[in-house]
Design brief:
about 450 residues; TIM Barrel; 2 domains; 10-stranded mixed β-sheet; about 40% helix; globular; binds magnesium ion
Length: about 450
């Protein structure tokens, strides 16, 4: 008698209600021949107990002026906990509230081994998916579960993901200067220190002037100062001036320093869409490693045009929160480098799938990794990159003494290469005693500024 006949016999051929079908499947499962013991059951009967989530705590800190949100997930195994990053520096309390008020009661008592299942449930838990706040909250939990799994198995997370493909990660060196000549010294020093991949900013780190602190430049662009007083050149209203300054910088580096280094640039979605297309064509002759965020997430259809008209490397994605934003760009081969901010996109579990998808379309990784990613988040980035074929470049800028004190086990860097400490799990922790020194002030921030004419500008 086959399975259909069995079910028919049990039900008498009647249509099944949901409750009845559950009953039928329960009976069928009970009647099925049972293996002596599954691998997991055997492992546990050999002394490894079922692992339950017993508590979840959030830690908000402010280090070097940046809000950080981390989460520890505790388990029924004494002393075994994991740590994750859900840093949304601009809206820290919303992430912390989401963890404390919604995810914690949802997850206590759950099996900590069920990383994928828990991720899928957190993804749909608020009904509306893919908000940056919900994503950061679930990413913090997800990272902690991977950390727990690694610690439990006694292996680094990169081993859980398939093992090391490479020993370390080459790093990107940011160069910020007001003139091409001023970049010269920075680039040469970094080259002597082992770096060969650079990202240049025309001035001010690509920041936007503070509201009201701007004036028109002679060329029609705007010159201003950030809230911290840094002079910033901005381009709203004058794509041509920006393109000229950028080409001047590329030309200086290629003529005076080297063609044997990689040069990228973050446009930060500032030109008009048509200006961005002109920019791509103008800098192509200097063989840019990448040009980042030519367009805002709202304008990604324009990448099709850029791809058709130039061969520049294209990097995109630090603002993406939903797979429907990056998947078309990857599947259509419109970009070369994915820049997603992992916690904002849903965490390690989402990022590993993203990375593997990208592999099949020739897209490499350069996860968003500025100072508003906690070192725990950097560790997540690193463990993925160590274990995938299509690693591109690692964004990061070392860790200050304050950061290292608060987060023992930070990734290590030697001569422009980032290394894992190869400890089980993510290999990093948050020292709760030290955290008291970095108490948060409860304040987030608001991005964006105004053009001299008062119009709001994209950040
Ligand atoms: Mg960027």
């Amino acid at each position: 008698m086959d399975r259909r006949d069995t079910l028919k016999a049990i039900t008498g051929g009647a249509a099944l209600s949901l409750a009845a079908s559950k009953e039928v499947f329960a009976q069928a499962a009970a009647a099925a021949p049972q293996p002596a013991a599954s691998g997991r059951a055997r492992a546990r009967s050999g002394g490894v107990p079922a692992l339950k989530i017993t508590d979840i705590k959030t830690f908000m800190t402010k280090v070097d002026g940046t809000n950080m949100i981390n989460v520890k997930v505790y388990t029924s195994e004494p002393g075994l906990y994991g740590i994750g990053c859900g840093t949304h520096a601009e809206r820290p309390t919303i992430v912390a509230d989401t963890v404390d008020k919604y995810l914690k009661p949802f997850l206590i008592g759950r099996n900590a081994d069920e990383i994928e299942k828990i991720w899928q449930q957190m993804w749909i838990a608020p009904y509306w998916r893919a908000s940056v706040d919900a994503n950061n909250a679930m990413a913090a939990i997800d990272g902690a579960l991977w950390d727990i799994m690694g610690k439990r198995c006694g292996v680094p997370v990169y081993d859980l993901l398939g093992g090391k493909v490479r020993n370390g990660l080459r790093m990107l060196y940011d160069v910020q200067a007001r003139s091409p000549q001023a970049m010269d010294d920075q680039i040469r020093k970094a080259m002597a220190g082992g770096y060969d991949h650079f990202r240049i900013y025309l001035a001010g780190g690509g920041q936007t002037p503070a509201a009201g602190a701007v004036e028109r430049s002679a060329g029609g662009g705007s010159i201003g100062r950030t809230a911290t007083g840094e002079q910033v050149f901005d381009i709203h209203g004058n794509d041509a001036e920006y393109i000229k300054r950028l080409c001047d910088a590329f030309e200086y580096i290629r003529k005076n320093i080297s063609w044997d280094i990689e040069i990228g640039h973050d446009v930060h979605e500032r030109p008009s869409p048509r200006g961005a297309i002109m920019l791509a064509k103008a800098v192509e002759q200097y063989r840019p490693f990448f040009v980042e965020d030519l367009f805002a997430p709202e304008d990604i259809e324009y990448y099709k045009i850029v791809r058709a008209q130039s061969s520049i490397g294209i990097a995109m994605g630090e603002l993406f929160v939903n797979q429907n934003e990056w998947l078309p760009l990857v599947a259509n081969r419109y970009i070369d480098i994915i820049r997603t901010h992992i916690s904002a996109a849903g965490g390690l579990n989402m990022a590993r799938k993203m990375a593997h998808t990208c592999e099949f379309f020739g897209v490499t990784t350069a996860w968003h990794g500025p100072q508003n990613v906690s070192p725990v988040g950097h560790a997540v980035n690193m463990h993925i990159d160590l274990s995938i074929y299509n690693f591109g470049i690692c964004e990061g800028k070392g860790f200050t003494d304050a950061i290292k004190e608060l987060f023992p086990g930070c990734p290590e860097e030697v001569k422009g290469i980032r290394y894992s400490n190869d400890k089980p799990g993510l290999g990093i922790d948050l020292d709760e005693k030290v955290a008291a020194k970095f108490a948060p002030d409860g304040k987030g921030s608001n991005r964006g500024a105004q053009d001299p004419d008062g119009a709001p500008k994209r950040p």
